[in-house]
Specification:
alpha/beta, 2,3-Dihydroxybiphenyl 1,2-Dioxygenase, domain 1, four-stranded mixed sheet, three-stranded mixed sheet, 5 helices
């Protein structure tokens, strides 16, 4: 491949949003509201947008939802243990021994990821705006970021 074609490529820099299919917007918001604290960027009868600071989850109402057992997304949270306990209280089955994965009522597979243990980082301004400025990375995540030249 030539240098010209390499230079002409755009670089992936993150995920802006994830879109999930659900049967009913109100039911979906009630389900996610049982274990996540969030606000909405907007909503209509057929769409809702869960705000994640500089990203969002789009919920889209469709007449029929089909199960998909491998496709998933990783949802970063500030307290993975707290969310795990809440899912247990809700009798939500964790489907992976290695990760905290579960299915929502519409068959969407979600992997829960703790903010402290991954390279993914929010800027100080975004964390401040989300009232999460106390979040910190653990030493392993800090080292991974440093190894990639991205230490905070």
């Amino acid at each position: 491949m030539s240098k010209m074609s390499e230079a002409a490529k755009a670089r992936a820099v993150g995920i802006n949003h994830v879109a999930l299919e659900v049967r009913d917007i109100d039911e979906a918001l009630a389900f996610y509201g049982q274990f996540l604290e969030f606000s909405l960027r907007g909503r209509s009868d057929t769409m809702a947008f869960i705000d994640l600071g500089d990203q969002f989850i789009a919920l889209s109402a469709v007449p029929e939802v089909t199960d998909d057992h491998e496709r998933h997304f990783g949802l970063v949270v500030n307290d993975k243990g707290l969310l795990g306990r809440r899912l247990k209280e809700m009798d939500i089955e964790i489907v992976s021994d290695r990760f905290m994965d579960f299915y929502d009522p519409w068959g969407n597979r979600i992997e829960i990821v703790g903010y402290d243990n991954i390279q993914f980082s929010k800027t100080d301004g975004v964390l401040r705006g989300m009232a999460l400025s106390v979040l910190q990375k653990n030493e392993k995540a800090k080292q991974e970021l440093a190894d990639e030249g991205m230490a905070p």
